[in-house]
Design a protein that fits this description.
With about 325 residues, the protein is an alpha/beta fold. The protein is about 35% helix and about 20% strand. Helix 1 (about 15-25) packs parallel to helix 12 (about 240-250) and helix 9 (about 205-210) crosses helix 10 (about 215-220). One of its GO terms (molecular function) is purine nucleosidase activity.
Length: about 325
């Protein structure tokens, strides 16, 4: 049976790849997409999500706009320096315009309605700040009963990318991340940047995608600013598809190897704000510690067959047999 899936997203180049991976997969019943502020402001993330779905021929999927800011404290800045001014290297306008209007419901209401209407549990893949998901769990507690897993791209077990300690998605709204990861309402899988960096793809992978057909060409065309950033971050010509790695796990459970641990999120205003701390001590040692009351446990992704995962991502993103040809794209 296809995985019933909702994606909560802030596109973002890697978000665009993640949305396309799900939208093109016959292993997925993509129920809806919700947008959140993050890499760029909400208006940009919302139209970007809708245009990527239109590129994939998926105007049947509803899109609803969500939070414009974090739960408590204002978002200090976006990640335009990574994703470009519009979130897609300045090329969002080159994607097809969606024919389906933006859903009149807000993101939380759409998610709650989709969960209530589903006849089986639904996976949610939040690949941006966790504000919408925290609001869903707070406003609709019964919705958690319909959630199979929340597969989150976020966090870092080592160093961060936005600060020395914190990864961007968690740093953007630590209070929301704390609610989702420690609340225990629904099973969580955390896919941290330690692993997603190891899954980086190289220039040859991008060339193969870019020459695979109209969708691959369009996705490759969105990457110049993002790829330039990662040339510096990686030290070689490649880029990191953080969010697509998480969505691959959401689509096909077991793609990533996980460890079940307690995760805490730093919500202070010190240099560690937004850091994620995974307690990987042996259970006996945790139980004996005075600090063992750390809330619900989370499956944290720690490893994968990297070559197999890269091949899986490439195969999924090359799937364009059901989409009309070059006339779907504007001049790129």
């Amino acid at each position: 049976m296809p995985t019933k899936l909702i994606i909560d997203t802030d596109p973002g180049v890697d978000d665009a790849f993640a949305i396309a991976l799900a939208a093109l997969s016959d292993e997925v019943d993509l129920l809806g997409v919700t947008s959140v502020y993050g890499n760029v402001p909400l208006a940009a993330t919302t139209i970007n999500a809708r245009r990527v779905l239109a590129l994939c021929g998926r105007d049947d999927v509803p899109v609803a706009a969500g939070a414009q800011r974090p739960l408590v404290h204002r978002h200090p800045n976006e990640a335009r320096y990574v994703h470009g001014a519009d979130g897609l290297s300045g090329r969002s306008h080159a994607l097809p315009e969606p024919s389906r209007p933006l859903d009149e419901r807000d993101a939380v209401t759409l998610m709650a309605d989709l969960l209530a209407a589903s006849d089986e549990p639904v996976t949610i893949a939040p690949i941006g700040p966790l504000t919408n998901i925290a609001a869903l769990l707070a406003a609709h507690p019964a919705a958690a009963e319909k959630i199979a897993r929340i597969v989150i791209m976020g966090g870092a077990l080592g160093h961060g990318n936005t600060t020395a300690a914190a990864e961007f998605n968690i740093w953007s709204d630590p209070e929301a991340a704390h609610r989702v990861l420690t609340g225990g309402e629904a099973p969580c899988v955390l896919v941290p940047m330690d692993l997603t960096y190891r899954c980086a793809v190289d220039a040859a992978w991008m060339t193969e995608l870019g020459t695979s057909g109209p969708i691959g060409t369009a996705l490759d065309a969105l990457t110049p600013d993002y790829r330039e950033h990662y040339r510096g971050a990686l030290g070689w010509d490649g880029m990191v598809l953080h969010d697509a790695v998480a969505v691959a796990e959401a689509i096909r459970p077991g793609t990533l190897r996980t460890e079940r641990v307690a995760v805490q999120v730093e919500c202070s205003f010190g240099p560690g704000r937004g850091a994620t701390y995974a307690d990987r001590r042996l259970p006996a040692l945790r139980a004996a510690s005075a600090e063992s009351e750390t809330g619900a446990e989370t499956e944290v992704a720690v490893d994968a067959d990297l070559d197999q995962l890269r091949a899986q991502l490439l195969a999924g993103l090359r799937t364009d047999a059901n989409v009309p040809g070059e006339d779907r794209l504007r001049t790129l």
